Amino acid sequence: MSRTITVSDELYARLEEAARRRGVIGVEQLLENVADPPAPDADELRRRGEVVAAIDAHRAEMLQKYGVMPDSTELIREDRER
């Protein structure tokens, strides 16, 4: 069964632009990908792994350089109460 919805020209233009940026063919495919996103391919999984490794390396570098940083939650709370 098909459904028809009415969207403004402005919103449709934004959806078309989003589809173009994501490299999909049209608004319908964009909406299908939102409802059921495709599984990441090997290149995407490799890229994600590299990003996670870079974050871990940066975290280790910060720990070595500055040590364990204190939790600032209580300081923020005190500052807001002033």
Question: What does this protein look like?
Answer:
The protein has 82 residues and is an all-alpha fold. It folds into 2 domains: 1-38; 40-82. It contains 4 helices and no strands. Helix 1 (9-22) packs across helix 2 (26-35). The protein is flat. The model has no long low-confidence stretch (mean pLDDT 93).
Distance between the termini: 59 Å
Low-confidence stretches: none
Helix proportion range:
over 70%
Strand content: under 5%
Shape: flat
Write down the Rg.
22 Å
User: Which secondary-structure class do the elements indicate?
Assistant: mainly alpha
Total domain units: 2
Mean pLDDT: 93
Query: What's the β-strand tally?
Result: 0
Helix tally equals 4
Summed up:
With 82 residues, the chain is mostly helical. Helices cover 71% and strands 0% of the residues.
Keywords:
82 residues, mainly alpha, 2 domains, 4 helices
How are the SSEs placed, and which strands pair?
Elements: H1 9-22, H2 26-35, H3 42-66, H4 73-81
